[in-house]
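Render this sequence as a predicted structure.
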Amino acid sequence: MNLKTSKTSLLIAAVLTFSAGIAHAQAGLNDLQIAHAAYTADVIDIEYAKIALAKTKNPEVRQFAELMIRDHTAVNEGAGALLTKLNVKPEDNAFSQALISGATAKKAELSALKGVAFDRAYAANELAYHQTVNKIVGETWIPTVQNGELKDFLSQALVTFRAHEEHADHMVSALK
């Protein structure tokens, strides 16, 4: 298998692993379930980044992982402040649970890798993860959210997440 085929295979595997939960995202989640799922997706990406910081020696991968921790932590802190302001609590749901299940397998897979193989798998996963989450946030959640403040918050977060997707795409290309 050549590098291009390997890169494509990693990206496809990452998309398939995460895409199992997409059907749940379109199953009519309410605002509090969307808030929980968004928070869960951020926590998962922070966990992936912590694995990267522990394993990589690549400066670009390290910088990206640090960015993921900083930005996703900030988004979750902002979400928590909004939920406190609204005096509501997020609701666990099947989509959040599917995210956690998929992430458990992906974390085990990433943890077993070393060196360039790890860096490539992490980059491919980050690209697929952000592509999928951005699609769900932009095409499913934002149009269906009822609370205007949550809709605005998700719209602002999506700008950051799209920048992450672009950064991950560059990282994947650089690691060919």
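Summary. The domain at 3-174 is CATH 1.20.1260.10 (Ferritin). Residues 5-21 have pLDDT under 50 and may be disordered.
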